[in-house]
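debug: dumping io for the single-chain case to check the tokenizer round-trip. Nothing else runs in this session.
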Amino acid sequence: MITWTEVIRFATKGNPIPDKKVEKTETEWKNLLTAEQFRITRLKGTERPNSGDLCSIFDEGQYNCTCCNTPLFDSTIKFDSSSGWPSFTQPITENAIKYHKDTSFGMVRVEVMCNVCDAHLGHVFPDGPEPSGLRYCINSESMILDKK
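debug: decoded output
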């Protein structure tokens, strides 16, 4: 189980090694994604609180990266954080997520990205429920729910 201490270590000393890497040009990403998906995942944007389709959905399945379809989170660890964004307590695997210290907007946060394609997903905070105490706050546009 990933803890806040490990999140900080990844963000400052290096991330887990992904199983593979997916790289595309900006034009290729623009052709693959909607304008909003591109703005959020490739330009590090964010959606308005409570505007994402996945905020209130708690169906079984796995949440995959919109850009490269890498599994990111499982529905069993999704919870209602009342933050306005889908929230999870752990990634599906330790190396699914990449962590980056984010000092934008005059604060220090930890940005989370897909470790395979570097898509911006959202941020992680140390105020989630037990046992991890983590809250991965993720943009709906960054994920696709695969209901397998």
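debug: round-trip ok. DSSP finds three helices and nine strands in the chain.
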